[in-house]
Design brief:
The complex is a heterodimer of chains A (about 270) and B (about 325).
Chain A lengths: L1 H20 L7 H21 L9 H13 L2 H33 L1 H16 L6 H8 L3 H25 L3 H9 L4 H38 L4 H11 L3 H30 L7
Helix pairs in contact in A: 3-11, 4-5, 4-7, 4-9, 4-10, 5-7, 6-7, 7-9, 8-9, 9-10, 9-11, 10-11
Chain B lengths: L1 H20 L8 E6 L8 H12 L3 E6 L3 H9 L5 E4 L2 H6 L4 E9 L3 E5 L13 E4 L5 H13 L5 E4 L3 H10 L4 E4 L1 H10 L4 E3 L8 E8 H6 L1 H20 L3 H9 L9 H15 L10 H11 L19 H10 L3
Parallel strand pairs in B: 1-2, 1-3, 6-7
Antiparallel strand pairs in B: 3-10, 4-10, 5-8, 5-9
Helix pairs in contact in B: 2-9, 2-10, 6-7, 9-13
The chains are: A mainly alpha (about 270), B alpha/beta (about 325).
Chain lengths: ~270, ~325
């Protein structure tokens, strides 16, 4: 607990120092970020007005469409159904993935049996698998959750496996020379030392999960976000279609940012302030 | 030096990409036709008409796309000349200058219910049904029938793929749905007597039609006329003698991937289609009015069907010329 507090203090100090040093715009990264978003919106607006294609709406039309979709409840409703397979699939993948990855990293047998499977899965063009999933698991929530997992699981397993396999040897030697048990070795040395790479894998896994759920909703049955995209495309409501696509990209990005924040905040306090 | 070479290679690659993306104008006598779907047995008539147009000197290139929307976009962007589909929404909403000019076939869908639970349309009042997709033709047919029979469905679920709905019907996961001709026959073969076919009245909306930009319709008029004439005469020949479909297939070696065993299926399909009269004998010269009613119910066209103008969606000039030559039936 003490170490957490002291590093919080450090973070404040460093934060304060950097604010003092930098001048003008650079003082506030938030402003810079805002500026980059504004610039992006402006380029989009111009491209929409040119227009690049008859099917490419302007930024302002898309924004209006977005608020329309929120106001009439169709976007919130779509997210309720999209988030079910997404959250279920990502949580299952995270638990299973870290578990399997750790197992593979710790035991030779596990490595030989399981790692090749996940390497193949990661290398495979997964969208081609999705029709196969429907043959076995039908068209319901199971199939969609599975589609999320097929995309998210390999990257989580492989990252965890590599992280566990490449744990600092001298730390392990230290643990053994202090007569640490195998259990202590894993919980106190291996997992903490592997955690940065495991977290990187989890973030990649969540991003892949978003890909999986949208693919599933476009390829299996049109529900949620996939339904809004296909429906508005078939109706030639391109602004609504882009608003939906932009909203899922934004949600995915925000989720990743939040995960990173959570990681430094809760699990790895030593990383803060860097 | 190496940097220089690399830069040149990059520039050449960029130039190639930009140049490749640019649209090359079609020479006279060339026609690029975009299919919005993989051609199946129901495309024999279209493919045969295209072959016959080729025999008459039109240099047709077929482009197969995965989706009807893509076909429409290919037409708008000039990457194809003639599209196959019924892009009413696009014509109305996007205001792109494309027009339908011939009807190839009318919608043929079959509402099917599990006989254990339902017997007729009235039984479906308040019940769950499954259709292709939101705003699809299958949904519109079901809604039209509900309107005609004064019923409302309990809920409508969306299950893309007639074969998926067929399997779900056989497994019992859905009890009422709507499938295409091939899957209706499969249902009858796999579970004889288990399902009841509900009657569909007053349905003559366009399933597939030809469309092109107004510009191409005037510039490529000679080629368009040949294609339209062949579409009409193929439809007439098949309607008069359904066995002609299989003859066309063998003569022009159409759909070779399906193998010789598809002949029986093609014969059965065209026998039935001809009997139902769903191949337009006059190229759908009067199709627009029926389509307006149907597609506005399907939500694909906005506005009162009575106030919509045919010329905003159709260019009937090629059909008029073809019918003047072939005679109206």
């Amino acid at each position: 607990m003490n170490s957490v507090r002291s590093s919080e203090g450090e973070a404040l100090l460093i934060g304060g120092a950097s604010q003092g040093q930098a001048a003008g715009l650079l003082a506030s990264p938030a402003l810079l970020r805002l500026l980059s978003i504004v610039l992006f919106a402006a380029i989009w607006e111009v491209a929409g007005r040119v227009p690049v294609s008859f099917a490419f709406p302007t930024f302002s039309d898309t924004a209006v469409a977005f608020f329309g979709l929120v106001a009439d409840g169709s976007l919130p409703k779509a997210y309720v159904s999209t988030l079910q397979p997404l959250v279920l699939g990502v949580v299952l993948s995270a638990l299973l993935g870290v578990g399997i990855g750790t197992l593979c990293g710790l035991s030779r047998a596990g490595e030989w049996l399981l790692v090749p499977v996940f390497i193949v899965l990661q290398a495979a063009p997964v969208a081609a698998f999705i029709p196969l999933v429907t043959f076995v698991y039908g068209i319901g929530l199971t199939a969609k959750t599975l589609a999320v997992m097929i995309l998210a699981l390999p990257v989580i397993v492989l990252n965890t496996y590599k992280a566990v396999r490449n744990v600092n040897g001298s730390l392990l030697l230290m643990c053994r020379s202090f007569l640490g048990t195998r259990r202590q070795e894993i919980t106190r040395i291996v997992l903490p030392d592997a955690s940065p790479v495991i977290f990187a894998g989890l973030r990649l896994g969540v991003a892949a999960g978003f890909v999986g759920v949208v693919l599933a909703e476009l390829l299996i049955t049109p529900t949620g976000i996939g339904d809004l995209i296909t429906f508005h495309r078939s109706r030639a409501d391109y602004a609504e279609m882009y608003a939906t696509i932009a909203s899922i990209i934004a949600l995915s990005t925000l989720t990743l940012v939040a995960l990173q924040w959570l990681e430094t905040r809760v699990f790895r306090p030593e990383k803060r302030g860097r | 030096m190496i940097g220089m070479t690399r830069r040149m290679v990059m520039a050449a690659a960029l130039a190639a990409t930009v140049g490749g993306a640019g649209v090359l104008p079609a020479a006279a006598g060339d026609m690029r036709i975009a299919f919005g779907d993989l051609p199946g047995i129901e495309s024999i008539q279209t493919l045969a008409a295209i072959e016959r147009a080729k025999e008459r000197g039109v240099n047709v290139e077929l482009i197969i796309l995965n989706d009807e929307d893509l076909a429409a976009q290919a037409i708008v962007s000039g990457q194809a000349d003639v599209g196959i589909g019924a892009p009413y929404t696009l014509i109305q909403k996007v205001g792109v200058p494309i027009r339908m000019f011939t009807q190839i076939s009318t919608l043929r869908f079959f509402p099917v219910v599990n006989g254990e639970f339902y017997k007729e349309w009235k039984d479906l009042d308040g019940q769950e049904i499954a259709v292709q997709a939101r705003g699809s033709g299958t949904e519109a047919v079901m809604l039209l029938m509900a309107k005609n029979h004064g019923i409302t469905y309990g809920s409508v679920s969306y299950v893309p793929g007639s074969e998926v709905r067929r399997n779900a019907l056989l497994q019992g996961t859905i009890k009422a749905s709507i499938v295409d001709a091939a899957n209706r026959r499969a249902l009858e073969a796999e579970a004889p007597g288990k399902f009841i076919l509900l009657p569909v009245e007053d349905l003559s909306a366009t399933d597939e039609g030809l469309f092109a930009t107004a510009d191409y319709l005037s510039k490529g008029a000679a080629d368009v006329d040949i294609l339209v004439e062949e579409i009409i005469s193929t439809a007439r020949e098949i309607t008069a003698n359904p066995a002609a479909a299989v003859e066309f297939r063998n003569k022009y070696k159409l759909l070779p991937d399906l193998g010789p065993e598809a002949d029986a299926e093609i014969a059965a399909y065209y026998e039935e289609t001809a009997k139902a009269g769903s191949l337009p004998l006059n190229g759908g010269i009067d199709a627009a009015a029926d389509d307006f009613g149907f597609f506005s119910l399907a939500g694909q066209i906005e506005g009162d069907p009575a106030s919509l103008k045919v010329e905003d969606f159709w260019d009937t000039a090629p059909l008029d010329r073809a019918l003047a030559k072939l005679g109206k039936k």
